[in-house]
Amino acid sequence: MNGRSLLARSARWATIPVCLLAGLANAQTSTYSLNDLIDRALQHNAQILAGRADVDEARAQLRQARGAFVLPRLRLESIGGLTPDAEGDVFNPPSDTSGVRDLGPFARAQLEFVQPLYTFGLLSNLHGAAKAGVEVEQAKLSITRLEVEHQIKELYFGILLAQDLTRLVERLQEELAAWEEDVTLDNPDIPVSAPFKLQLALLELHKRSAQLDDALKFARSALAWMTGLPEDEAFAIAGNLSATTSVLPPINELYARALRQQPDLRHLKAGLDARQRQEQAARSAYFPQVFLSGGIRYAVAPGRTDQHNPFVKDEFNLFNGGVFLGLRQSFEWNMLGADLDKARAKRRQLEAIETTAAQGIRVEIRRAYDICRQSQQDVVSTRKARNLTREWLQLARHEYELEPGSVKELVSAFEALGGTEEAYYRALYKDNFALADLELAVGGRLSP
Questions:
Q1: Quick check: 46 and 207 in contact, CB under 8 A?
Q2: Are the CB atoms for 102 and 84 separated by under 8 Å?
Q3: What is the CATH number of domain 3-80+102-442?
Q4: CA atoms within 13 A of residue 136's CA, in its CB half-sphere
Q5: DSSP 3-state of 346
Q6: Phi and psi at residue 204, in whole multiples of 5°?
Q7: Residues 318-361: pLDDT tens digits?
Q8: Could you tell me the pTM of the whole model?
Q9: For the chain, how far is it from start to end, CA to CA, in angstroms?
C-alpha cells in the first residue's frame, strides 16, 4: 500500500464523521448564535433577574418617599362589640350598682391624619436620596448586564475554540493512524525510532482529545446555566472562530465614549448624589418638624344614655374631632450627631473613589486596547506560521511517497502542524476575547 492511497483513504475517513455529526445536530438540536445566547441570558439569568428586583425595590422606596409629602398618615380604625347598658346621667345614675346589667352593642370609629408643613428640607432630601437610589440600582443592573454578556462571550468563544481543536485532533489522529500498518519494526524501509515516534504522537493526541472533551462539557454546562437553558436540552453553537473585523477607534475616542456610557461611572455619581442627600437629611433632623394633625371620632351604643355634659366622657357614646398645629423637636444631639458623622463619612468615601475613577477607567481601556491590537498582530503571525507548516507537511508527504524511510520527518511535520494550528485557533480566541474585554472596559459594544 503506497502513501498516496493512504492519504486519500484518510481524507475520506476524516470527512464521514463530520458530515454525520452535522446531520444529527441539525435534526435533533437547537442552534444558538452569540446574540441569541446574550438575549436568553438577559431574560433568564439569575443575576439579572435579581438586579431587576433590586430596581423595583428602589422604586418602591422612592414611592414611599414621595408619599411622605402628602398625608403620610391617614388611618381609619373601627371596632365593635358588647358593653353593659347604662341609662341615666351623672345626676341620675342607674339604680343597679352591682355591675351586672344587660349587654348591648356598640360601635366606634376613629379617623386620624398628619400633614407635614415644613421640615427644613428633611423630606425633600430623603426624596432626592431615594431617587438617586433608583439610579444606583439601574446602574448596577447595567453593570451586571455587561458582565453577564462578557461571560457569555467568554464561554461562547471558548466552546468554538474547543470544537475547532477537537476537530483538529481527530483529523490528526485519523491521518497518523493510517500509517500504523506500514510504520512497523519489521518494515526494513522504516527507521527503528519511527514506530515509537508515531505511537508517542498518537498517545499525545489521545490525551489532548480527552482534555478537550472535558473542557467542552464544562463550558457547555456553564453556558446552559448562564442562559437558562434546560440541563437536558441538546444545543449547538452557531458561528465559527474567526478573526475580528472591527477597526479600533482612536484611543481618545474610546476614553470619551467610556466617560459617557460607562455604568461604573453612572453608579458612582448616583451613589455620591444619594450620599449627599442623606447627609443633608441627617443635618435637617436637627431642626423642628412643623405639621398639621387632627381627626374625627364617633362612637354609638344604643343601650347607654348619650351624655351631653362637656365634663363627662363616655367612650361608647361620643362624637368629636379637631385640627391642630404641631411641632416636633428632637433633643437627642448625640444620636443625631452620630447619624450625621456616619453619612458624612460615607459621602467622603465615594468622593475619594470619584477622584481616581476616570483615571482608572482610562488605564483599563489603555490596557485592553493594547492587548486587542497585539492579539490582532498575533493572528497574522500565527496564520503565517500555520501556512509555512502546511507547506512543510506537503513537502514531507511527497518525500514519504518517494522514500518511506522519511516517515520521521512526516510525523514531525504533523506534530508541528498540530502546534501551529492550535496556536492559530488560540490566537483567534484571544483576538475575540480581547475585543470583548475592550468593550467591557468602554461600557458598550464597539461594533453592531
A1: no
A2: yes
A3: 1.20.1600.10
A4: 20
A5: helix
A6: -65, -40
A7: 999 999 999 999 999 999 999 999 999 999 999 999 889 999 99
A8: 0.80
A9: 54
